[in-house]
């Protein structure tokens, strides 16, 4: 280095960056010094660039680690969702949810619709937004959740498991209604919902209307108690449309299965079990 940046001083800076565990700043140090020598930036700008790059690296690492802890199956974004394919969906309403105020209010977001309409995509994208905002997130399909709770109950650690699941600012429970709930599972899920009630936000995705939850959970009484809590502070979003995944092969799907796309679950009520409406096929939820 020339007189503007003596070699001994630069070596000292390198040692300091190593001690401070600032690998990105160390990586771009020489290039930043050359920019100073060439008059492209001054010392303050150089310092800002070094710290900015290091902070960006650390933030990316934090997000990556938080996404792993959230157990997201894939990383999805709202930018990657084709709103034009689902005209029934209010894009502005979804973007408003991305502001994450529902987490602060400990609300429950219900995403309802037939398979392939993007419920899990939107739930995952909102979870990613929450992670980026520094919120603790946990994502799990209902069948896996109940299996974990049942295992904890057998091992005598159910209280600890529920306590763990209530720590997350946002709990995403995916695929309600896709698989049958095992005996006792409805009660276990109720215990978790009750523990999070008015304390932590949730996103639930389901291909079944609320009127079918008694069948889904195998216990109308518990299903009513679940809905009593899950619809108290709730945002309900219905997606009525065709499967995005099957859009290129729709002609190959039998007509009776394509009719399932006309999903129209009944409007939620505060208490009780709503009457069954619409033409829904529980075998293909």
UniProtKB/TrEMBL annotation:
Keyword Acetylation attached: no
Keywords: ATP-binding, Nucleotide-binding
Pfam families recorded: IstB_IS21
Ranges where the AAA+ ATPase domain occurs: 105-240
Record InterPro entries: AAA+_ATPase, DNAC/IstB-like, IstB, IstB_ATP-bd, P-loop_NTPase
GO biological process: DNA replication
SMART domains recorded: AAA
SUPFAM superfamilies per UniProt: P-loop containing nucleoside triphosphate hydrolases
Region Disordered, annotated ranges: 262-285
GO molecular function annotation: ATP binding
Nuclease keyword on record: no
Domain of life: Bacteria
Entry similarity comment: Belongs to the IS21/IS1162 putative ATP-binding protein family.
Name of the protein in its database record: AAA family ATPase
Lineage: Bacteria, Pseudomonadati, Pseudomonadota, Alphaproteobacteria, Sphingomonadales
């Amino acid at each position: 280095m020339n007189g503007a940046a003596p070699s001994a001083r630069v070596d000292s800076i390198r040692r300091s960056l190593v001690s401070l565990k600032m690998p990105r700043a160390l990586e771009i140090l020489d290039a930043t010094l050359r920019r100073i020598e060439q008059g492209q930036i001054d010392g303050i700008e150089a310092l800002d660039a070094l710290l900015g790059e290091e902070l960006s690296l650390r933030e990316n690492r934090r997000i990556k680690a938080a996404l792993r802890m959230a157990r997201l199956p894939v990383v999805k974004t709202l930018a990657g969702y084709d709103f034009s394919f689902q005209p029934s969906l209010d894009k502005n309403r979804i973007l408003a949810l991305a502001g994450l105020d529902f987490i602060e209010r400990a609300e429950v977001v219900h995403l309802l619709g037939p398979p392939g309409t993007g419920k899990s995509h939107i739930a995952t994208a909102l979870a990613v937004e929450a992670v980026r905002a520094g919120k603790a997130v946990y994502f799990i399909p209902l069948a896996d959740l109940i299996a974990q709770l049942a295992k904890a109950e057998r091992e005598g650690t159910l209280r600890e498991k529920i306590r763990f699941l209530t720590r997350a600012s946002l709990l995403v429970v995916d695929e309600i209604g896709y698989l049958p709930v095992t005996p006792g599972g409805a009660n276990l899920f109720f215990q978790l919902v009750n523990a999070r009630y008015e304390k932590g936000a949730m996103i639930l995705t389901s291909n079944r209307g609320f009127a079918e939850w008694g069948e889904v959970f195998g216990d109308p009484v518990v299903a009513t108690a679940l809905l009593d809590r899950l619809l108290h502070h709730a945002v309900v979003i219905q997606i009525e449309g065709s499967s995005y995944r099957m859009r290129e092969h729709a002609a190959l799907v039998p007509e009776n299965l394509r009719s399932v796309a006309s999903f129209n679950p009944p409007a939620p009520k505060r208490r009780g079990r709503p009457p069954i409406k619409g033409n829904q096929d529980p075998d293909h939820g």
